[in-house]
Amino acid sequence: MEFTMDKQTILIIDDEKAMRELVSFALSDEGYEVIEAENGLVGLEKARAQLPDLILCDVRMEKMDGYLTLSCLRKEPSTASIPFILMTGLADNAGMRLGMELGADDYLPKPFSIEALYAAVGVRLKKSQAVRQEAEKKLADLRNSISLALPHELHTPLNGIIAFGEILRMDAESLRPDEIADMGKDIEESGRRLERIVENFLIYAQLELFRTDPDEVAALRSKNTPEPSRVISEHARRQSELAGREADLSLSLAEATVPMSEGYLGKVVQELVQNALKFSKKGTRVAVEFTHDSETLVLKIDDLGRGFSTDEIAKVGGYMQFDRKLHEQQGLGLGLSIAKRLTELHGGTLAIQSQKGQGTSIQMRLPKNVG
Questions:
Q1: Residue 50: which residues within 8 A CB-CB, separation 6 or more?
Q2: For the residues of 269-337, what is the DSSP string, one character each?
Q3: 348 falls within a domain
């Protein structure tokens, strides 16, 4: 069967032929394309193959009931977000709770009227469409940000490397040793900048993929850092040295095992401290504090920099930078997003408190025991 692109497709899974035909007729009459499946196994196959816009599924069926069908579909990335309505003649509280826990979007108790059917289907499709439109908007914004920011960020360090490389190739004999050393330093700095851009790009893309894979999330949460003060200190001091602000750094670090790998904890510290140094002036304090209580670990970074508005903080996301036109910055603006995503993937939260002209305080809070 071929389906036109302008019609929404609904899959009906029910082992009662009369019920399938009745629901199919009613929905077809409303202009929907309808697919029918006589049991959960067949419904599962058709859902995977056709990817309908909505699924109506009976609860009590032979071979595979509605709950198991729903559970299987929710575990697969391609079908996990399809709106799913359970139909049942046994709409007890326990059954409804189980369905909702498995990810059902709605319950339609049998017998139901045609009006109730239309209402349930209409509400779920409108909600799904709104979610899809919002996701498409975010994707479009991301594409625009990448297309505008990435070429500039890659070309800037590359231009420096190429330009100095050409000078060294063509005028090496006429250059003094100190001039060659200066050019070598500039090439190294440009190369490191380019390295960080590529590294952050790859990490961000990887973390976005991890979000949809429970096994990857579980693997992330299985790693620990038993000596966080050493890791935090090393990365914070390294960033202050690179910024020429060793005297501005203040450290107050407790000891407690952090449920995050050393590499990722170091990455969080690197990005947060680097941002604090970037958005504050030399000679002002940047404080890094690590504390804990019986349940929670807290990493806090404070600076006395220019601060951000509430709107800027709300828009924290990949490839976004604050006031790029007013404050020239290096990097894709991914650092804060990477720190936020890493924190969330490890069951924690990243909170930003800031006021324009008065500085910023960022807190990463992690549970001691991540589930």
A1: 3, 9, 11, 35
A2: HHHHHHHHHHTS-TTS-EEEEEEE-SSEEEEEEEE-S----HHHHHT--TT--TTTTTS---S-S-HHH
A3: yes
Q: How many domains does the chain have?
A: 3
Domain with 62, as residue range(s), is 9-112
pTM to 2 decimal places: 0.55
Q: Is residue 248 part of a domain?
A: yes
pLDDT tens track for 138-160? 666 656 655 555 666 677 788 88
- Are 65 and 14 contained in the same domain? yes
Single-letter amino acid, residue 104 = A
Per DSSP, 58 falls in state: E
Contacts of 25-28 with C-beta under 8 Å, sequence gap 24+, read 26/114, 26/117, 26/118, 27/117, 27/121
Please tell me whether residues 287 and 352 are part of one structural domain: yes
Q: Per residue in 260-306, pLDDT tens? A: 999 999 999 999 999 899 889 999 999 999 999 989 999 999 999 88
